[in-house]
Amino acid sequence: MKPVRAYVALGANLGPRRATLRWAVRALDACEGVRVLRASRLMETEAVGGPAGQPDYLNGAVELETTLAPHALLSVLLELESRAGRHRERTEKDAPRTLDLDLLAHGDAVVDDERLTLPHPR
User: Fold this and answer.
1) I want to staple 98 with a disulfide (CB 3.0 to 4.6 A). Which of 22, 26, 85, 112 is the partner?
2) For strand 57-66 and strand 43-45, is the pairing parallel, antiparallel, or unpaired?
3) C-alpha to C-alpha distances, 103 to 6, 16, 49, 70, 92, nearest whole angstrom
4) Total Cβ atoms within 10 A of residue 87
5) Residue 43: which of 67, 12, 65 has the closest Cα?
6) Rg of the chain, C-alpha, whole Å
7) What distance in Å separates the CA atoms of residue 110 and residue 34, rounded to the nearest whole number?
8) Cα-based angle 92, 21, 55 (whole degrees, multiple of 5)
């Protein structure tokens, strides 16, 4: 596949948030078919939705160049979340998390299926 630009949002509100997000950026850059071009500053935001009283999030975004197809890149993101201790199947919607990686855009791809919506709807 020809390289395309992709954008990923990163967030965490449990554990060592800053260290986890830095690890996620390095881990993404180390993945075959992925190169991190730029990373935003990290910003702290209040949790929206989910259980009341959860900790604030630390959020950022990265711009990638990738040769991976959208679903393949999504699989990489989900694997990194799992390695950071997040298990999506065990938590309620918008629950606190150790790592949240959302694929926002992948070139000009438009996808709408049970696993992925691109561009990201939120």
Assistant:
1) 85
2) antiparallel
3) 8, 22, 20, 8, 20
4) 10
5) 12
6) 14
7) 20
8) 45
**pTM over the 0.70 mark:** yes
The residues that are catalytic are 86, 97, 100, 102
The tokens describing 106, both together, are: 């992948």
Task: Name residue 117's beta-bridge partners.
Answer: 112
pLDDT in tens for each of the 122 residues of the chain? 799 999 999 999 999 999 999 999 999 999 999 999 999 999 999 988 778 888 999 999 999 999 999 999 999 999 999 999 887 665 666 778 899 999 999 998 877 888 887 888 66
The angle formed by the CA atoms of residues 111, 112 and 113, to the nearest 5 degrees, is 115
